[in-house]
Amino acid sequence: MSVIIPKKSADEFFEKIKELSGQDIKLCMQCGTCSASCPMSEHMKCTPRKAIHLAQLGMDEMLHEQNTCWVCASCHTCSVRCPRGIDLARVMEAVRQLTLRKNENFIEPSKMTAEEIKNCPQIALVAGFRKLTS
Ligand code: SF4
Ligand code: SF4
Q: Measured in angstroms, how far is the CA atom of residue 37 from the centroid of ligand 2?
């Protein structure tokens, strides 16, 4: 089944990503260097290369269903290695921001069990809440 993406909404999505990250995702040539370099890709439902492809197509709903930007550790390996000079770590941050700005959290602190809180290092909890909650 083919999916028809309205051009206007795709353009609006690129512009939003560009405004937040300063990056032009249209430059991506889908080489896959980012996915091959990413230390977190095995934990992602969708690799960094595929995530940027969804973003290029303006498929923001499908992109938000993936865990890619949340699992991204902001290590910047992809940004250093991208042959097109795209700072993909900043793109991932922009995608996270677009979700958090809708007041949608990736994790709900109130739903964590006492056992989970007890077992997490405090610094990890604070860092996680900063990154994953609005
Ligand atoms: S490394 Fe850069 S050009 Fe290659 S797929 Fe990733 S973002 Fe695109
Ligand atoms: S910045 Fe994120 S997407 Fe890029 S290599 Fe590191 S973990 Fe993977």
A: 8
Domain residue limits, the chain: 7-102, 106-134
74 Cβ inside 6 Å of ligand 2: yes
Q: What percentage of the chain exceeds 90 in pLDDT?
A: 53
**C-alpha–C-alpha distance, residues 37 and 33, integer Å:** 6
- For residue 91, the one-letter residue type is V
- For the CA of 79, the closest atom of ligand 2 is 4
CATH 1.10.1060.10 fits 7-102, yes or no: yes
Per residue in 87-134, pLDDT (tens digit) is 999 999 999 998 888 887 888 888 889 998 888 888 888 888 888 888
Say how many Å lie between the CA of residue 87 and the centre of ligand 2.
10
Give the predicted TM-score (pTM) of the model. Answer: 0.84
- DSSP labels, 34-95: HHHH-TTGGG-SS-HHHHHHHHHTT-HHHHHHSSHHHH-----HHHHH-TT---HHHHHHHH
CB 91 within 8 A of CB 52: yes
Q: What local confidence, expressed as pLDDT, does residue 134 receive?
A: 81
